[in-house]
Amino acid sequence: MKYGIYLSLSALLAAGLLVHSPAQAQAGACGEERDIKQGLMDEATWKRMNEAFEQVGEENYSAAMDNLNYLRNRARDDYVKAVVAQGIGQVNWAQGNYDQSLKDFELAVQLNALPNRTHYSLMYQIAQLYYAQERFDEALDKLDLWFCKVPVEEHTAAAYVLKGSIEAQKKEWPKVIESIDTAISMDENPKENWYALKLASHYELEQFTQAADTLEIMVSRWPDKKAYWTQLSNTYYKLENEAKALSVMALANRKGLLDKEGDLLYLANMYAFQDVPYKAAQVMQKGLDDGIIGNEERYWTATGDNWYAAEEYEEALAAFEKAGQVADAGKIDLRRGYILVDMERWDEAVEALGAAIEKGGLSDRQTGEAWVMLGMSEFSRGNWSQASTAWNRASRFPEVRNQAQQWLAHMREEEARRGASR
Questions:
Q1: In this structure, is residue 314 part of a structural domain?
Q2: Is 115 among the domain residues?
Q3: Digit-coded pLDDT (tens) for 191-216
Q4: How many structural domains does the chain have?
């Protein structure tokens, strides 16, 4: 059975959509009251109608349509005409003939002979069909008429959502928010897509404070939806509330929701921007270790920078070593060399500086500085010959020539002092 087609005429009666008792007069919010007399159907018509709806239930639409067309041609009473038009409309809907279905339903309404519940349900269905056909002005007109005719206590949250959806297509964003807020107020368990439509409307109006308020509700109701956490963080960032933007993403990370490279890079950058390099380094390191962040020089370098800023030098060295392993040029190894020289770890400094010089890709100043520091490291290890060679090489670079010559002079003085002491 498709599109909610009723299985039998009896089912329609049970649902209250086709009744033979007098219809209660309906006072509408606009227009005149409906004063509908009792609808009657003779036994032969009843049997054929019931047979048609059973055929619909069996998806035998051709046979159902034959029966309904037979009844339409014989019908003289407006009530029977309206019931038949409704039935034909349902068959056309089931077969995807929405244009014809719309005409059938509108005829059933125009005959003004069906009981209130059926009459107004068809009005609502007509609005839905216009919306499905992207005829939004007509859809809204029909829905507004339905709101006018049906008592307020019978309005539904779904009807206001439909209204908001139509208004969204017409880009009437303040009205969308009003409709969706009404729907939310009427339902103990508002749907996720209702909030999504409300949120989109606030963004369209650049109402970022209201958007943040909406997202706060969304993350509390659907805490496993990463998109809402990242949107909330971005929204607080737009509001220049960087502290909240960071706290939202940090909480999402603790919940294990940040599983993409971009998410972790965004969080690490926010930590760094808020001058929390230790946390920034932690996020980067874990992302790299887990394989979420790509094994690239720039990411290992950023991790090393943050560890260094946090004065975690061992971790910084390890990160720079990883960066150097995937780097084509020697700049990262040179940075590692600077740190190792500062820490007076001469053996490791010699290895790092040697790698930097061998890989190349350095400026003249950087190359000269590498030779100077290599000389310092060899000198400190007691390898004066290697130190002399390194400083002589450094002397070829004008940017560090004086420094290299000072070290050479210092070494000669030290040699003389030691010679004199012997």
A1: no
A2: yes
A3: 999 999 999 999 999 999 999 999 99
A4: 2
At CA 79, angle to CA 73 and CA 83, rounded to 5?
70
Final residue of a structural domain among 145, 173, 201: 173
Which amino acid type is present at position 222? W
Contact predicate 27/46, CB 8 Å: no
Here the CATH number for the domain that contains residue 421 is 1.25.40
Domain span holding position 390: 343-422
CATH number at residue 62: 1.25.40.10
| Per-residue model confidence as pLDDT tens digits over 233-251 | 999 999 999 999 999 999 9
Last residue of a domain, one of 173, 199, 226: 173
pTM: 0.77
252 assigned to some structural domain: no
